[in-house]
Amino acid sequence: MKRIGLAVVAAILLGVAIVAMRSASDRGVSIPPPPVAAVVVEVTPIPSVPLRVLPSFPAPAAAAASPGTTPGSNSRTAGSPLAAELNAQSGSPERDVQVLHEMLRQYLRLLHSRQGLPIGNDTDLLRALTGHNPMKLVILPPDHSAVGADRRLRDRWGTPYAIHPRGNSAYEIRSAGPDRKLFTADDLAANPAPAAAPAADDDEAPGEATR
Fold first, then answer.
1. SS3 of 138, please?
2. Which residues, at least 6 apart from 81, have a Cβ–Cβ distance to it below 8 Å?
3. How many CB atoms sit inside 10 A of residue 6's CB?
4. Alpha-carbon Rg of the chain, whole angstroms?
5. Rounded distance, CA 153 to CA 64, Å?
6. Longest dimension (CA), the chain
């Protein structure tokens, strides 16, 4: 406050002197300028504060990729490792239907008590396996070679797989085989329905098999 008062007084004196000089100049009188009081402002130096350097922490290590996935891929959308075996050149048609049946069982286990869409044919199964399910889980990648351009699930001969619900979450999966015709001798099936027992002939003795 003392410094501010001195500055104000000096400003007033300077103003009075300027007014007096102008008045004298108007009357033709030469007046020497009064001495200007020097105002000394004492500046207190601010002590320097040393900068504190924070320690650097290493970046967290990336999580290990789960089997069957590529680094950086999302395990929920990468697909099941079984997908690589479906219609593989090194595999067999018998293994194809088994793999597809295992993927269906895997889906049903993960679905558990959730309400999923009904599966009545290969299109329904394809939708469920490619992520259109309550878990948003991909078991079969949508760009898999078994997925046709028409969004049908096809065997290695290009024929859609036949899916037959058997009740109680049981399904038969069938490939038409090389002749591309269902229910012929070269069909391949996983979890097939048991064959019906032949009807007994009235003329045969009890327990005798028919040909």
1. strand
2. 67, 68
3. 15
4. 46
5. 32
6. 160
If asked whether residues 175 and 95 sit together in one domain, one would say yes
Q: Using an 8 Å Cβ cutoff, are 97 and 87 in contact?
A: no
Q: Which is nearest to 141 in space by CA: 69, 71, 78?
A: 78
Residues 110 and 185 reside in one and the same domain: yes
Alpha carbon distances (Å) from 89 to 19, 146, 201: 108, 12, 47
- Residue found under tokens 């929920």: 76
- Beta carbons of 152 and 160 less than 8 angstroms apart: yes
- Domain boundaries, position 28: 1-38
Give the pairing type, strands 162-167 and 188-190: unpaired
Query: Using DSSP, how many helices (H) and how many strands (E) does the chain show?
Result: 3, 3
* Domain total in the chain: 2
Q: Residue 181 falls within a domain, yes or no?
A: yes
Average pLDDT for residues 43-64, to the nearest whole number?
Answer: 57
* Identity of the residue numbered 49: V
Q: Which residue's structure tokens are 């922490």?
A: 57
In the predicted model, what is the mean pLDDT of residues 73-96? 88
Which CATH number covers residue 95? 3.30.700
| Range 151-161 average pLDDT | 97
